[in-house]
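User: Sequence recovery, please. Input:
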């Protein structure tokens, strides 16, 4: 009886052992086949990027290697004083962040001048922090632009500036400029805007997609404030034309594709499970690595299709959103990573193209005001060149009205995903008698 019992267990053990061996062979074979497919897929997609004039294998090496300069370090110190630093959770910024943001949005979304004064809570913050804000202004105007840490050795060593801090600094400068406009202090407002633009320009040199998107959000602030400033210097027209947000996105997508390939090659569990993965998580990451490599390589292909579609659509596309949706809809069903992550990236193009219209709108406002100053005091009947638009099927309509004058975008394209945060209007009413008297008081 005992021998029969032992024999049964031996047979069960042999069956289990054989089953495990077969499973191990199948897993090993699948792993090898998927790894081979992933390597071929990566080589094919990298070749496509090279054919498109955006080689990935040399892109990272072409990036400058930098360390934070003195301006960036000093800017961090001033941000700490304002309560924008990482360590400060109870500084002056905490209590004013929401009302300041609400004021900035309301003031910049106005469709007519003059600029509105800030509420008392915001005005008090600006008064109390005036020496620090002046320090930020001088630092950016009188020194080389800030440079943050950047590496070209891969994403394990990648470092981003404090983007939230940088965005909030831009908010403070734009709010200070609006407050100065409401007090008639034009020169101070222009200094705030100059300083803020230099901060935007410094961040715009970064290669990351998130940096490009934050730059767009930052640029929208001085672009909006300029609409309420009288007698804006001509250099601002050149600045508005020089900033082309969609061109930076193509480079940023190239950087993101490099990120996908490097993440696939390293295959560490850190990407998915954080800095301290368990041994089970490491084992899962190891087993899934070939599949993840296939997904990420295919994701790089989809990103390239998005870049090509955006670049082929011109400066003012119609139907780009539908085309992006179609590209994503045709992502393979097995590539769940692309289906989850890439829809969040596609909306970036809408933000860039909407920003291009905002830049042009502000340029047209400045052009009309320059014509009034030349021929004034009344608004001219017509402004040469004001009708032309980057949109082939659109134009800008300027008209003198009983109340002053107006300008609006005819048939503006819609970018629903871009209508978040501050939305600058594409219609503006000029007052009958714009203020011309300004003071130079600080």
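Assistant: Recovered sequence (442 residues):
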């Amino acid at each position: 009886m005992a021998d029969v019992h032992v024999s049964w267990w031996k047979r069960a053990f042999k069956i289990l052992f054989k089953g495990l061996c077969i499973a191990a062979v199948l897993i090993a074979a699948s792993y090898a086949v998927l790894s081979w497919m992933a390597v071929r897929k990566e080589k094919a997609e990298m070749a496509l990027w090279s054919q498109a004039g955006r080689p990935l294998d040399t892109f990272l090496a072409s990036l400058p290697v930098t360390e934070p300069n003195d301006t960036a370090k000093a800017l961090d110190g001033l941000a700490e004083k304002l309560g924008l630093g990482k360590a400060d959770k109870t500084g002056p910024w905490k209590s004013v962040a929401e009302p300041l943001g609400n004021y900035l949005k309301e003031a910049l979304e106005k469709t007519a001048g003059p600029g509105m004064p800030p509420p008392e809570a915001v005005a008090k913050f600006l008064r109390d922090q005036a020496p620090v804000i002046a320090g930020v202004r001088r630092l950016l105007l009188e020194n080389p632009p800030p440079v943050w840490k950047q590496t070209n050795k891969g994403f394990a060593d990648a470092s981003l500036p404090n983007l939230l801090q940088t965005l909030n600094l831009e908010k403070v400068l734009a709010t200070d400029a609006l407050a100065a406009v409401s007090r008639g202090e034009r020169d101070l407002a222009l200094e705030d805007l100059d300083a803020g633009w230099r901060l935007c320009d410094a961040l715009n040199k970064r290669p990351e997609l998130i940096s490009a998107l934050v730059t767009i959000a930052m640029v929208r602030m001085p672009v909006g404030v300029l609409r309420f400033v009288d007698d804006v210097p001509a250099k601002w027209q050149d600045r508005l034309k020089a900033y082309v947000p969609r061109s930076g996105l193509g480079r940023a997508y190239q950087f993101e594709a490099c990120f996908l390939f490097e993440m696939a090659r390293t295959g560490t569990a850190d990407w998915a499970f954080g800095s301290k993965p368990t041994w089970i998580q490491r084992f899962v990451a190891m087993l899934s690595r070939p599949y993840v490599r296939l997904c990420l390589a295919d994701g790089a292909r989809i990103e390239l299709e998005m870049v090509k579609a955006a670049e082929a659509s011109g400066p003012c596309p119609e139907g780009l959103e539908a085309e992006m949706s179609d590209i994503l809809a045709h992502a393979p069903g097995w590539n769940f990573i692309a289906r989850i992550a890439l829809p969040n990236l596609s909306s970036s193009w809408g933000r860039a193209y909407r920003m291009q219209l905002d830049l042009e709108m502000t340029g047209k406002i400045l052009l009309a005001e320059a014509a009034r100053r030349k021929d004034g005091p009344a608004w001219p009947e017509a402004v040469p060149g004001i009708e032309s638009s980057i949109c082939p099927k659109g134009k800008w309509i300027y008209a003198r009205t009983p109340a002053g004058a107006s300008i609006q975008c005819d048939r503006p394209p819609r970018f629903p995903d871009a209508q978040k945060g501050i939305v600058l209007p594409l219609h503006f009413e000029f007052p009958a008698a714009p203020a011309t008297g300004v003071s130079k008081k600080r």
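The longest strand covers residues 395-401.
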